[in-house]
Amino acid sequence: LGSVQLIDASTHLTMAPLGLGSxxxxxxxxxxxxxxxxxxxxxxxxxxxxxxxxxxxxxxxGSGTFTLDKGVVSLEGYELTMNTGRVGLGGMVVLPRLxxxxxxxxxxxxxxxxxxLREAWARLPELEGVVDARVQATGKGFDPRLSFSVxxxxxxxxxxxxxxxxxxxxxxxLIGYYESGEVILAKESSVAWGxxxxxxxxxxxxx
Length: 207
Hints:
Layout: E1 2-15, E2 20-33, E3 39-52, E4 55-69, E5 72-82, E6 85-94, E7 103-113, E8 126-140, E9 143-160, E10 164-170, E11 173-179, E12 182-193, E13 196-205
């Protein structure tokens, strides 16, 4: 039998070339392994600050459970609560073996309040509406395949230049996936334009 317990731990991570960073505080972890080698644990984080260049977001990770069985970590019931919305997290990670990278199948479902995005990134224009997003990440090592579905409702952008302008975006949707440095948009994706909906699709290289 083995057990691990962390109470109110903290950590600070930065990746200077990319402008990425995170500050974690109030981390609580409980883990216990039984006679058969199966592990059961809980994890919650009271305070998370996410940094991406000029973007600042505050969040907390609600208590969820995880199991470790024969090198497979399964996650269930986790919810990341941010100023701008909530993200539900789940899935599984297969730990690396000799000569093989780790593999994973992870999912996230998010509800984002567009009106509050400026609290994380002050340079954004005033926004209205709600975004529902689903992301699925599968793969091995650091080469994931990301499938995504993003649907906005009652989306509007308010721009103030010489005179106030409001762009009615309606209910745009983006459906597709990312793989090997390319984003592929499915033909079901659409945006509002000129009082109607325009179907969009294609391929965008990020390399």
